[in-house]
Design a protein that fits this description.
single chain; 93 residues; mainly alpha; 76% helix
Length: 93
């Protein structure tokens, strides 16, 4: 339950920041996150069907979850440090 609460808080903060950012970067980020959700949904469905017929292919989801969480956190920190102090202006043509 605590993990779901933390995930929902982080998700809410990301959505809040994207909504407040009305330029093309915010729109692109929203589109990328939407497609990421689609890919994850189909990926989970495919994995469930595949592992049903091939039980040897089951993954340890605790390790997978930790790896995904750490990689996403590292990516966020890396991009935050890289773009800190830079105003990204996108020309509206």
């Amino acid at each position: 339950m605590l993990g779901i609460m933390i995930t929902d808080i982080i998700d809410s903060l990301i959505v809040y920041r994207m909504i407040n950012q009305t330029n093309k970067l915010g729109q692109s980020a929203s589109r990328v996150m939407g497609w990421g959700i689609v890919v994850l949904a189909y990926g989970v469905s495919f994995y469930q069907a595949f592992s049903f017929f091939n039980p040897w292919a089951e993954l340890d989801f605790e390790i997978l979850g930790v790896v995904l969480f750490l990689s996403l956190t590292f990516s966020f920190v890396l991009l935050s440090v890289r773009f800190r102090g830079k105003n990204i202006e996108i020309n509206k043509n």
